[in-house]
Design brief:
The chain has about 160 residues and is an alpha/beta fold. It has a single domain, classed as Rossmann fold. It has eight helices and five strands, in the order E-H-H-E-H-H-E-H-H-E-H-E-H. Helix 5 packs across helix 6. It starts with 8 loop residues before the first strand and ends in a 9-residue tail after the last helix. Residues about 100 have low confidence and may be disordered.
Length: about 160
């Protein structure tokens, strides 16, 4: 049964990157990307500023698409920075800028979702690490719902027809 309260979704960069490049390329799933734009227009899809940095670091079609629809990026605020700081202080490895593929946005995604009462959308799975938890682990700790894109399709009752 669908929720009576409209959902708000806080996207991790992986939700865009993996969907665009791996699972749901826009040339094959254009309706999905139109639906995401509609969520952005309805202010139901939000992105943390740190996740935006990961998304615009590329030089590809996803970067161009995201820049065109970047109104969903929520600026930092004191509360978000406080929650992200608490996460980083507890799990220093969760925000390492010197890594080849840093995951520095994770604390900000979780903090923004907590403040906005939003559902985190990510392709990450839990890793159960007590030193470097993944987004789902942080979400569980902060009592935040998390889903992948299939979960989003289900919550929004999206269907993309028969694929042959």
């Amino acid at each position: 049964m669908p929720s009576l309260t409209p959902n708000k979704y806080c996207f991790d960069s992986s939700a865009f990157i993996d969907s665009w490049g791996r699972y749901y390329p826009p040339a094959i799933f254009p309706t999905l990307w139109d639906n995401l734009v509609e969520l952005i227009d309805q202010k139901k899809l939000i992105v943390a500023k740190e996740a935006e940095k990961e998304l615009i670091a590329g030089n590809d079609d996803l970067t161009a698409w995201f820049k065109k629809h970047s109104l969903c990026v929520i600026p930092y605020n004191t509360e978000q920075l406080q929650i992200a700081s608490e996460i980083v202080n507890k799990y220093p490895k969760v925000s390492q800028y010197h890594r080849v593929k840093p995951n520095h946005a994770d604390p900000f995604v979780v903090a923004l979702a907590k403040l906005e009462n939003a559902i985190v959308v990510t392709w990450e799975g839990p890793n159960g690490s007590s030193l470097n938890p993944a987004i789902p682990d942080l979400c569980r700790e902060h009592k935040i719902e998390y889903i992948n894109m299939i979960g989003l399709f289900t919550k929004e009752s999206w269907s993309f027809g028969n694929i042959r």
